[in-house]
Amino acid sequence: MRVIAGCIIEKDNKILMVKEAKKKCYGQWNFPAGHLEENETIKEAAIREVYEETGCKVKLIGVLPIVHEFNKNENLIMVRFVAKIEEENIKFNENEILDVKWIDIEDIKNMKEDELRGYNMSLKFLDDYENNHIYPEEIFE
To answer: Residue 64 pLDDT more than 80?
Structure first.
């Protein structure tokens, strides 16, 4: 089982998104996220992944409902926090990320399946976010 932690970060009705450079999802947009590392909390992982993928420092302010997915013989637990920008300094490793951009929420919802990584799951996270299905991030303490 793997745990994937990340964030939805909104500013001016736009969401901070990353364009993936990994072979399996090349060119697809995603919320900044990645795998939990050994001896790391889920909250630490989400903050680290945002920083590594975007160069931005964030503060967690809530968490969306957790998603469980069985994918290619593997159990995945996905946790998406809601965060706010503390320090915006867009920079990224071009071997892992092709682009970082603020994208209008409606434009994300109108993306095609091959444009948005984990299409159904990503739209569910966005729907939960828009419908304020946000819980206190302290549930992870």
So the answer is: yes
Domains of the chain, start order = 2-138 (3.90.79.10)
What tokens appear for 58 in the block? 């964030």
- SS3 state of residue 15: strand
What are the residues whose beta carbons fall under 8 Å from the beta carbon of 91, sequence distance 6 or more?
Answer: 54, 55
CA atoms within 13 A on the CB side of 69: 15
Global model pTM greater than 0.70: yes
The model's pLDDT over 7-54, given as tens digits with 9 standing for 90+, comes to: 999 999 999 999 999 998 999 999 999 999 999 999 999 999 999 999
Residue 141 tokens read as 């303490």
CA distances from 11 to 4, 57, 63, 88, 112 (A): 23, 14, 17, 11, 23
Angle subtended at Cα 46 by Cα 45 and Cα 50, rounded to the nearest 5 degrees: 115
CB 66 within 8 A of CB 36: no
DSSP character at residue 116: B
